[in-house]
Amino acid sequence: MKVLVTGGAGYIGSHTVVLLIEAGYEVLVFDNFCNSSRESIRRVEKIVNQEITVIEGDIRNRDDLRNVFEKYAISTVIHFAGLKAVGESVEKPLKYYDTNVNGSAVLFEVMAEHNCKSIIFSSSATVYGDPHTTPILENFPLFVTNPYGRSKLMVEEILRDIYVSDNEWKIVLLRYFNPVGAHESGTIGENPNGIPNNLMPFIAQTAVGKREILSVFGDDYDTKDGTGVRDYIHVVDLSRGHVQALERISSFRDPMTINLGTGTGYSVLEMIKAFEKVSEKKVPYKIVPRRAGDIATCFADPSYAKKVLDWEATKTIDEMCKDSWHWQSKNPNGY
Predict the structure, then answer these.
(1) 3-state secondary structure (DSSP) of residue 6
(2) What is the mean pLDDT of residues 162-168?
C-alpha cells in the first residue's frame, strides 16, 4: 500500500514515516521544506536503512499534487503539512488560512480527482479552546481562541462536509495534545526554527546552553503549582497512533474523531524538574506574565482511542525527557 505523507519531513511526520516503513508500508513524502529540513529525511533513511521517495512541492499548488497522484497509485494520505505556531497565526492569520485551509482544500480536491478518498488528518486539541472540565472527551464543545486552532477546525469541518457529499470517503481526524520527545536513537527530533514555541525544546535548548533562561508564562493559574498543566505525549506514541489509524481506516464507516494523549496532565514546573532529573542539568527559569490565549489545564480522555484503535500511550514522562535530552545533546544546533 502506497501512503502519501504530506509534511513528512517535519517533527511528527518524520517519526511517523519511520514507523510506517517499519510496519511494511510504502511511503512517499511530500514537503515544501519551509518549516523542515531535508536532513531529517536523510536521517530517517539511516534509521530504516532504505531510500525514501521525496517529492518537493506545495499543497497549495494543484500541479505539484497532480504530478504525484498521476505518477503514483496512492491509497491513503496522512496529512501533516501546515503551519503550526499559535503566536505567528495571531500576527499573520491570512498566511495560516492560505496554507492550512486553502492548501488542505486543494489537496482534497486533487485526491478526489484521482479517486483517493482515504485520509488521516493531523488536527489539534486547540479546537477545544478552554474546556469547561478535564479530562477532555471528543464530544466536548469546540471553541478556538486563535487562527491556528481555527484553521484546524475549519479543515475538520471541510472533511465532514466532503463525507456528507460523498460517503465513500474514509476520514480519521486525530486531535493531538502536546507532542514531545524524540526517536530513541537521538537521530531525529524536534527542530524548531528560531525561538521555540513549545515548552520541551525550550527546556532542552536551555539545558544544552543554547538559551540562557527559560520563560515560564504565568504562575498564578488555578493548578497545583500555579503553572499551566498539559498532556505531554511522546512523539513515538503519537506516531504509532497514525499507524493504528491507517490499519483500521478502511473499516470505519463514518468520519472518526479521536484524541491522542496520555490522559495525564503535568505542570510546567513538573516538566522542568523531570528534565533536570534525567539530564542532570540545571534548567534556569524565570516567571513572566501569562501569554494571551493560554489556558490553565488541558489533558485528554484517551479511552476512545483505546476502544477504536486499540491504541494507548505507553511512554512515561521520564522517557519523554530522556529522549528529548538525548536528541538535543547529540544535536545542540538541530539539523
Answers:
(1) strand
(2) 98
